[in-house]
Amino acid sequence: MPILNDIKEILTGLSITFRHIFRKPVTVQFPEERRVMPERFRGSIVLTRDPDGAERCVACYLCSGACPVDCISMAAAEGENGRRYAAWFRINFSRCILCGMCAEACPTLAIQMSPEMFHCKRQVMDMIYEKEDLLIDGTGKDPNYNFYRHAGTGVVQPRGSSPGEQAPADPRSLLP
Amino acid sequence: MIWTATDIALMIGKIVLLYAIILTGAAYLVLAERRILGFLQDRIGPNRVGPFGLLQPLADVIKMITKEDMIPKAADRLLFSMAPAMAAIPAILTFAIIPVGAPLQLFGRQVNLQIADLNVGVLFFMALSSVAVYGVALGGWASNSKYALLGSIRGLSQLISYELSMGLSLVPVVMLSKSLSLADIVNAQADMPFIVYQPVAFLIFLVSILAECRRIPFDLPEAEGELVAGFHTEYSGMRFGLFFVGEYINIISLSSLASLFFLGGWRGPLLPPIVWFFIKVGLFSFLFIWVRGTLPRLRYDQLMHLGWKFLTPLALLNILVTGWWLALR
Ligand code: SF4
Ligand code: SF4
Does Signal count among this protein's keywords (chain A) (predicted)? Predict the structure, then answer.
């Protein structure tokens, strides 16, 4: 009889839901309990420093160009040693969608995603983070990477002096 | 009977007390539903307002009252404002005939814990539940919106079909107790609750009251997935609140009737009668919530099929069998 089968199915469903009453709820009660996010979680954005403690960012505008919602803006400036830096650097977190495109585009690994995800503010203007708010003291991921050890040579160090780089050949010595 | 001042005072006291109990009960049933549904779904449910969320109903009421009371331009104003009351009043009126406990001795007289022991109690209940349909029907019609109208049409046909099987499932109870008065029905179950003699009638009644208070799996008049909110789509603020509270009062009243008709009402060993009554009503209310947390909504044709082709014939057959049994006994 199909009806008996239906009743059996209904009772099975009821028993399953009843058992769930005694399960531990999965709810995280947010302000009191906070989940620890995994290290590679794409949370809010930081600007990191190189292992020598200098700012990594060279104000190349690549992150700003990569950002799909156009929320990064900056102005480039040049230091006395010829090294470029961002005079100001601003991220509008009320627009940021935490997609990670900026971090992917960055050649110097300056801009990185951090696992911190709890930023909410009462005023929307407080969601605009300036360079001082973004800059951290550490290197973030990839602690040994320093852009100027691999590229940008001739600006802050003589050519051919970074590891893995050959000294420039003297073309005259190759002449017959 | 001559009404003395004490009688009148007692009566007013009973009415006020009952009112307070039902309204608080309905408010806390809403909270209980939200929390139990939460647990059923491995969530916690509202627990922020007060300890364990116990002040949540108060917060909800404040929210409802302070909301803007909107009446759509195209609506029929009079009917639109009357409909929520027409849904809630019959639900509250049903409590007039429900005995919540054994008669007490108070001030040297017998006090029935029942506002009116009508000798046509069952009929009174059936009549009220039919009147309650008008709230749904007129609410949907007066708001002049397609979703509301569809919802109220569904509500009408559903309530009419399930009213039938509900009434028929009560006939065996009346046959066994030989009375339409609820106090007599409870007294007739002194030895044995009727659920033992009438399991089929009990199941039919259970399904019908689920349909009667428009709960999942029979919530077609509201069907939020298809009809926005069905017959109360256009309602907001306290008018919506009245529909909402009416639904929960209905749950309580139908739960109490189910326990009166089939579980022996306030009768039970050891504990005082009122406690037994509340336990039984609580069990039925829990069942309502539990079913809501489990079953999906029926399709419209399935609903009609179940009502007309299955429950009604089964209830008729049940009456026949009960009649034979009573005649041959
Ligand atoms: S995470 Fe995406 S949206 Fe946010 S700043 Fe970077 S590129 Fe723009
Ligand atoms: S953060 Fe990276 S990509 Fe953006 S401007 Fe600085 S160096 Fe270029």
Answer: no
* Cβ neighbours of residue B201 closer than 8 Å, sequence gap 6 or more: B169, B170, B172, B173, B194, B262, B315, B318, B322
Cis ω on the peptide bond leading into residue A171 (within 30° of 0)?
no
Residues making up the binding site of A for [4Fe-4S] cluster: 57, 60, 63, 67, 96, 99, 102, 106
Interatomic CA distance for residues B83 and B86, integer angstroms: 5
pLDDT in tens, B17-71: 888 888 888 888 888 888 888 888 888 888 888 788 888 888 888 888 888 888 8
Radius of gyration of chain B, Cα coordinates, nearest whole angstrom: 20
The mean of the pLDDT values for chain B is: 84
Instruction: Kindly report the length of chain B.
Output: 329
For residue A40, the model assigns a pLDDT of: 85
The tokens of B18 are what? 């009952």
Q: What is the CA radius of gyration of chain A?
A: 26
Could A29 and B44 be called an inter-chain contact, meaning their C-beta atoms sit closer than 8 Å?
yes
ipTM above 0.90, yes or no: no
DSSP A63-127: HHHH-TT--EEEEEEE-TTS-EEEEEEEEETTT-----HHHHH-TTS-EEE-S------SSGGGG
Of the residues A50, A72, A111, which should be mutated to test ligand 2's pocket, given the most ligand atoms within 8 Å of the CB? A111
Report residue B227's pLDDT band, with 50, 70 and 90 as the boundaries: confident
Is B135 in contact with B84 (CB distance < 8 Å)? yes
Shortest distance, CA A20 to any CA of chain B (angstroms): 5
CB-neighbour burial class of residue A112 (10 A; exposed 0-12, middle 13-18, buried 19+): buried
Q: What are phi and psi of B6, to 5 degrees?
A: -65, -40
Ligand 1: residues within 6 Å at CB? A 45, 66-67, 69, 71-72, 91, 96-102
Pocket-testing residue among A99, A109, A114, ligand 1, by greatest number of atoms within 8 A of Cβ: A99
Q: What is the mean pLDDT of residues B108-116?
A: 71
**A87 φ/ψ angles, rounded to the nearest 5 degrees:** -65, -45
- The alpha carbon of residue A30 is apart from the nearest alpha carbon of chain B, in Å, by 12
Question: Which residues on chain B are in Cβ contact (under 8 Å) with A15?
Answer: none
CA-nearest residue of chain B to A31?
B48
Q: What's chain A's average pLDDT?
A: 85
CA dist list (Å): A168 to A149, A155, B7, B240:
16, 15, 113, 82
Q: Which of A99, A96, A106, A97 is nearest to A65 (CA)?
A: A106
Q: What is the pLDDT of residue B97?
A: 84
CA of A83 to the centre of ligand 2 (A): 13
Helix then strand then coil, in percent of chain A rounded to 5, is 25, 15, 60
